[in-house]
Amino acid sequence: MLGHDNIGGYLTNSPYFGALIGRYGNRIGGGKFTLEGKTYKLANNNGPNSLHGGIKGFDKVVWQASPSLTPTGRHWN
C-alpha cells in the first residue's frame, strides 16, 4: 500500500493515498439533483458537474477514530 510516513504528507497535495471516495462516486451531472421533489445544488468541481463529493470531499478530511464496543463488550471487527 502506498502512503506517507506522517500526516503532513497527506495534508499537502497527496495523490489520494488513504482517501475515502466520499458521499458518492462519479459525477452528478449539472451539479444538482432532485430528491422527493426538492432540487439540491452542489458545488461544481468538474466543469459543470460535481465530482466525488465536491470541493471538500472526504479525501480532504482528517478523521478521528475511536474503538466501539458491541453490547456484549466486544470490539467491532
Largest sheet: 2 strands, antiparallel
Number of strands: 4
Shape: flat
Distance between the termini: 21 Å
Task: Give average pLDDT, whole number.
Answer: 83
The secondary structure category is mainly beta
Describe the fold and architecture.
The protein is mainly β and 77 residues long. The protein contains one helix and four strands, in the order αββββ. Strands 1-4 form a two-stranded antiparallel ribbon. It has a two-stranded antiparallel sheet with strand order 2-3. It is flat, with a radius of gyration of 17 Å.
Keywords for this entry:
77 residues; mainly beta; two-stranded antiparallel ribbon; 16% strand; flat
Please provide a brief summary of the model.
The chain has one helix spanning 7-11; strands at residues 27-28, 32-35, 38-41, 50-51. Helix content is 6%, strand content 16%.
Write the layout of secondary structure elements.
Blueprint: H1 7-11, E1 27-28, E2 32-35, E3 38-41, E4 50-51
Antiparallel strand pairs: 1-4, 2-3
